[in-house]
Write a structure and sequence with these properties.
The structure holds two protein chains of two kinds. The N and C termini of chain A lie far apart (about 75 Å). In chain A, about 30% of the residues lie in helices and about 25% in strands. Chain A folds into three domains: about 30 residues, no CATH class; about 250 residues, Catalase core domain (Catalase HpII,  Chain A, domain 1); about 45 residues, no CATH class. In chain A, α2 packs parallel to α3, α2 packs across α7 and α4 crosses α5. Chain A is α+β, with helices and mostly antiparallel strands. Chain B has a single domain, classed as Fumarate Reductase Cytochrome B subunit, CATH 1.20.950. In chain B, strands 1-2 form a two-stranded antiparallel sheet. Chain B starts with 9 loop residues before the first helix and ends with a helix. Classes of the chains: A alpha+beta, B mainly alpha. Chains A and B meet through α1, α2 and α7 of A and α1, α2 and α4 of B.
Chain lengths: ~350, ~190
């Protein structure tokens, strides 16, 4: 009898730890299920930012980052990068649209074999503060089958429940949209900690700011080309390498580090720590970047997570999406090898 | 029999309880981290180096096991019980090696850096390969459940012998030294 109680008790604790006894609690698997319900299941593709193209190049560090972080990525020198431009949303065949959120994910390979992965978007702040907010936004902004557009009443309900999202959307709406991937600024949104060689900690956010003010190439926007944003990017890279400055913004005491919906004051110190150059483009069909999880918490020594709840949640959800898609058959990318070769 | 050891060697006993605590911790961390959002990162950061520690200790334990004499099974254990006990011991040893190796291999196949602490990281065990990652990721879970089930069976058997048969089976693995009261065992 005692034995049965002991064994059942341990097994019960295990089931509780696994989340099996709390079917309504939000978990990485349930967030990915929500993405699949809203977008449909597209085997082999990322569950969000499903449409993308892979690029590569290098990062030239100017050494100025060493003041803040001992990460070897900031030592003066050049290191290879592999990256992926994407559009948000879970539909790999979606038509490019100017107001779809653009993403840039980068993997830096450091000289000592460490890696730094970062996934950024072109919004100035995050439209949600937590994983719950993200999930509810996905549900609220799902197209209404009757109109094909998000139901305004549901969006209103969402903003009422998440006032920080309403404020963030106001700021996002007030900023002009850049015309292409090439002249977009991409932001980490979440804060991170930089630890320098002396052990002192700085709280930072980072961005990559475009060197080219306009897309080098343009493509027709006549509704027949579903990939016009990607095609312009491809043509630009074929005509000349594209470059972005890696800008680190340093927080002052009191700046929120646990809330990516709130911008930091514009006068915060910004340090240009080096230049990212993109000189090759490749379709997901052949690039290894397709099978890279751009987990924002794959960080080198000298960069660490902040208290922003989005970071751990993103890491968990990306992992779940990665595990699902890697086990599925590969399907051709909307941005094909023929397209990237042009 | 009278002259043989009545307990496992001291090092064996220390390794047994140390690894029991580590393995149980790992199982709970593993199963909760995949369901967790806010604690995921903290748990993964413990899970990886703890897994490698277990792998290192598993090597130490196997070497130790090969060079020590085991105490005999108590006479209260039947033939089939002895066979099951020996088989489950071999199975547990296999899992102590397989789980960390599959975890390491799985991260390699998934093209992840194998970060331990600070700048310390391990080389990939396998080439990056999406299907290999998917298979090993699944295997890791299945092996973990098998380990948990085997642990529960092992615990049930020891509790049954100790509490119902009252043959003091658990004393063979006690961390402190136990004088065996031979007469007591035989009369119980």
């Amino acid at each position: 009898m005692t034995i049965g109680v002991v064994i059942a008790g341990i097994a019960g604790l295990f089931a509780y730890a696994a989340g099996w006894l709390t079917p309504n609690a939000l978990t990485p698997a349930r967030i990915v299920n929500t993405l699949e319900e809203v977008n449909g299941r597209h085997p082999g593709f990322r569950r969000n930012h499903a449409k993308g193209v892979c690029v590569s190049g290098y990062f030239n560090s100017n050494g100025r980052g060493t003041e803040l972080s001992k990460a070897s990525v900031f030592q003066p020198g050049r290191m290879p990068v592999i990256a992926r431009f994407s559009l948000s949303g879970g539909q790999p065949e979606a038509a490019d649209a100017p107001d779809t959120v653009r993403g840039l994910a980068i993997l830096f390979t450091l000289p000592d074999g460490e890696e730094w992965r970062t996934a950024m978007i072109n919004l100035p702040v995050a439209p949600f503060r937590t994983a719950e907010g993200f999930t509810d936004l996905v549900l609220a902004s799902a197209p209404d089958p009757a109109t094909g557009k998000p139901d305004p009443a549901r969006m209103q309900g969402f903003f009422a429940r998440y006032p920080e999202s309403a404020k963030a959307m106001e700021l996002i709406g007030s900023q002009p949209l850049s015309s292409g991937f090439e002249n977009s600024r991409f932001n980490s949104l979440s804060a991170f900690r930089f630890i320098n060689a002396a052990g002192s900690v700085a709280w930072v956010r980072w961005s990559v700011a475009p060197v080219q003010p306009e897309p080098v190439a343009t493509t027709r926007l006549d509704g027949t080309n579903k990939n016009w944003l990607f095609d312009a990017l491809i043509a630009s890279i074929h005509s000349q390498p594209l470059a972005w400055h890696l800008i680190v913004t340093v927080a002052q005491a009191g700046d929120p580090t646990d809330d990516a919906t709130i911008p930091w004051p514009a006068d915060r110190r910004q340090i240009d720590v080096g230049t990212l150059t993109i000189d090759r483009v490749e379709s997901e069909d052949t690039s290894p970047a397709r099978d890279i999880n751009f987990d924002p918490l794959v960080l080198p020594n000298g960069i660490a997570a902040s208290d922003d709840p989005l970071l751990s949640a993103r890491s968990a959800v990306y992992s779940q999406s990665f595990t699902r898609r890697e086990g599925e058959p590969k399907n051709p990318s909307a941005v094909s090898t023929a397209e990237t070769a042009r | 029999m009278a002259n043989g050891p009545t307990q496992f060697a001291v090092l064996s006993r220390i390794l047994h309880w140390l690894m029991a605590a580590m393995l149980l911790t790992m199982l709970f961390i593993g199963v909760s981290m995949v369901a967790s959002l806010g604690d995921y990162h903290r748990l993964v950061a413990i899970h990886r180096p703890l897994g490698i520690m277990i792998l290192i200790l598993a090597v130490v334990r196997l070497v130790n096991r090969m060079f020590t004499t085991l105490p005999p099974f108590p006479p209260t254990m039947s033939d089939w019980e002895r066979r099951v006990a020996s088989a489950s011991e071999r199975f547990l040893y296999a899992l102590m090696f397989a789980l960390p190796l599959v975890g390491w291999g799985m991260l390699s196949a998934g093209d992840y850096p194998i970060v331990m602490f600070g700048p310390l990281h391990l080389p990939p065990l396998l080439p990056a390969n999406r299907m290999l990652y998917a298979v090993l990721r699944e295997t890791h879970t299945v092996l973990a459940f098998l380990l948990f089930a085997t642990f529960l069976a092992h615990l049930s058997a020891v509790l049954f012998h100790t509490l119902v048969v009252r043959d003091r089976l658990v004393h063979r693995m006690a961390l402190w030294s136990i004088r065996f009261h031979k007469a007591k065992i035989e009369t119980d």
